[in-house]
Amino acid sequence: MSIVRDFEKAFNRQDVDALLACFTADGSYVDTFFGAHTGQAALRGMFERMQAAFMAAGADAVTAMQRAEAAMFGMVQRQATMVAFVSIFQLLAVVFVAMVPLVLLMKRPRSRARVEAAH
To answer: Residue 85 sits in which domain range?
Structure first.
């Protein structure tokens, strides 16, 4: 989770280079609105297009940059959430597989207890 913390610190400093450093050199991201991006230059281009889109919507340059950074932060948070979900799913799968032999080791009860009416 340190990458998310690094991204958060870069976001709070409004440091675009540090934001992009949180992505690998050949990292890729597919956004439904801005499309697919691979590499640092493409991610920087996506960030600049996000900022331009916010400016076209009526925000000033500083507010547009903050909104673009917030959008990138949201993307990273969603990706971190997905990675955590996959990790937990894998852990639960291992626990499930590990418990299957326990079912085979269980013994059936010798006799069934007879239940009588309570009244």
So the answer is: 2-105
Tally of CA atoms within 13 A in the half-sphere of 92 that contains its CB = 6
Check if the beta carbon of residue 13 is closer than 8 Å to that of residue 75. no
Residues 6+ apart with CB under 8 A from 1: 80
Per the domain annotation, does 112 fall within a domain? Answer: no
For residue 62, tell me if it sits in a domain: yes
For the chain, how many structural domains are there in total? 1
pLDDT tens, residue by residue, 66-94:
777 777 778 778 878 888 999 999 999 99
pLDDT for the residue numbered 1: 56
Q: Is residue 6 part of a domain?
A: yes
Counting residues of the chain whose pLDDT is more than 90, the rounded percentage is 13
On whether residue 115 sits in a domain, the answer given is: no
- The answer to whether the CB of 63 falls within 8 A of the CB of 52 is no
CB burial of residue 101 (10 Å; 0-12, 13-18, 19+): exposed
At residue 96, the pLDDT reads 94
The helix or strand, by DSSP H or E, that contains position 79, with its residue range, turns out to be: helix 61-105
